[in-house]
Specification:
Number of strands: 12
CATH superfamily of the largest domain: Spore Coat Polysaccharide Biosynthesis Protein SpsA, Chain A
Oligomer: single chain
Distance between the termini: 33 Å
Radius of gyration: 20 Å
CATH topology of the largest domain: Spore Coat Polysaccharide Biosynthesis Protein SpsA, Chain A
Order of helices and strands: EHEHEHEEHEEEEEEHEHHH
Structural class: alpha/beta
Strand content: 15-25%
Shape: globular
Helix content: 40-55%
CATH architecture of the largest domain: Alpha-Beta Complex
CATH class of the largest domain: Alpha Beta
Number of helices: 8
Length: 286
């Protein structure tokens, strides 16, 4: 049996859609990073298969995902996001698949939400396709958006990097799994649908963009430093540093206040990462 884990932050307007799409058969753990006790009471009173965990602080994606994995009591955990629609009996099909195939650490469904985006990548030479009970599996090196985790092939060292608050956590996760010789698959004929940019309330859009601006550059430098070395990351960041300074100067001359603050957040995220400071930026309260 599968437990579904959904890390959230102010996703009140869409989280019930995901619960209804999943149905009543499977346990759902929602890690709500906003401390919304009213949402917890509401969801747990209406949906008997739903448990809402309220951390004491906004954990970000990685720490919330780890909390969900550790808190789950089933052999398989399906990590997903509030803006990924569960379509075409996705969870039922995954549950059927794992009853017949267990030689994996992570499997992702094929996301069909955007024809310009593919939620998996292949770098190595693998067999083109493996068919298990009509399910078409392909071994890959990186997956995004959703992760079905086989806990019997998963160790503490494979957990998400909790130093990363936002961005590059999926790349780091996959890279470490491959380094530890774990198998990652996409199942081509089980599908999800990524809506995109819908995981939080629209009233928080400005603050969300500030957060993304800061953390993208922090996480990119951290990822490059972690896997390729500090000076490699520094060299790759010099041109970005110059570009961001030009962006700030341009926003001042054009009196674009919001652009100025977004560019400033970008450069601050990069500088904090260069100076080995933690990803601590939070422009709003829970």
């Amino acid at each position: 049996m599968i437990t579904i884990v959904i890390p959230c932050f102010h996703s009140e307007k869409i989280i019930e859609d995901r619960i209804l799409e999943i149905g009543k058969k499977f346990k759902i753990l929602i890690i709500e990073n906003s401390k919304n006790s009213n949402l917890k009471k509401k969801l747990e009173s209406i949906y008997k298969n739903v448990e809402v965990i309220l951390p004491n602080e906004n954990l970000g994606w990685g720490r919330a995902a780890n909390l969900g994995i550790i808190s789950s009591k089933t052999d398989f955990v399906f990590l997903t996001q509030p803006d990924v629609k569960i379509i075409d009996n996705c969870i039922e099909k995954l549950n059927d698949l794992v009853n017949h195939f267990k030689d994996f650490t992570v499997i992702t469904p094929h996301d069909v939400g955007n024809s310009n985006f593919i939620n998996y990548e292949v770098y190595g030479n693998y067999p083109k396709e493996n068919v298990v009970k009509n399910f078409r599996l392909e071994q890959v090196d990186h997956v995004d958006l959703t992760w079905l985790i086989n806990k019997s092939n998963f160790e503490n060292r494979d957990l998400w990097d909790e130093n990363i608050f936002l961005y590059f956590e999926a790349m780091d996760f996959a890279k470490r799994l491959k380094k530890n010789e774990k198998k990652i698959f996409v199942v081509k004929n089980i599908k999800t649908f990524h809506i995109g940019s819908s995981s939080h309330d629209k009233s928080l859009s400005h603050y969300a963009l500030l957060t993304r601006s800061w953390h993208y550059n922090w996480s990119k430098f951290y990822f490059l430093k972690k896997h390729f070395g500090y000076f490699y990351a520094l060299r790759k960041s010099l041109s970005l540093f110059l570009k961001l300074n030009k962006k700030i100067i341009k926003s001042i001359f054009l009196f674009k206040k919001k652009d100025f603050f977004y560019a400033l957040a970008e450069i601050r995220g990069l500088v904090n990462s260069i100076f080995l400071r933690s990803s601590s930026y939070r422009p709003y309260k829970n």
